[in-house]
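Standup notes
- DV: blocked on the single-chain target, sequence here:
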Amino acid sequence: MVTAAAEWESVVEELCKLYPDARCELNFANPFQLLVATVLSAQCTDVRVNEVTAKLFAKYTSAYDLLPVEQQVLEEELRSLGLFRHKARNILALCRVLCERFGGEVPRTIDELVALPGVGRKTANVVVNNAFGVPALAVDTHVFRVAMRLGWARGKTPLAVEAELCRLLPQSLWGDVHHLLIWHGRRVCHARSPVCETCSLRAMCRTGRGDIVPSAQCPVLSGA
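- DV (later): unblocked, structure below
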């Protein structure tokens, strides 16, 4: 493993002090809303998604409500989001599958979720963990970047990094660490200009200590 257990434990302890309220920053009231919001969050900020879904969920409360909606109509409601046409098509398609195969309910397993239109492993992990309390560790661009810089992972793909993190960390911490790494990535460990000089993790970070020099350009990962 890339880093010693004592080191990751210290990092998690410090992250918990820094971000005691770390959580999913997408607004949702049920699994369906979380699924839709996560699909919409691909290459888009949570703040923007929350602005759009506040109006969307007031109008459409379930997968059944979206079934009769024309794609062009939904596109207009999603227009302020990146890839809005693609997202509208996927949302309508996954709603059809939810209604036809699952009685309008969101399935609770990774395998069933990733079979839905527009749903990849990251989205599935987010949903099962945050909606159903199933241990899962979603790897988005922030988790990927911070894990690499800390020296927790060396994989070239989100799936490889997820496997490394799940081997390193106790299952009980997977969901919490997902949120902690995202919050740190958004607030301190930025993609282009990380604030290493004042970062309280610097002494525990292999990049901060100069032990490793990861690629300056982290890959752009799909939000799905």
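- Follow-up: The two ends are 28 Å apart (CA to CA).
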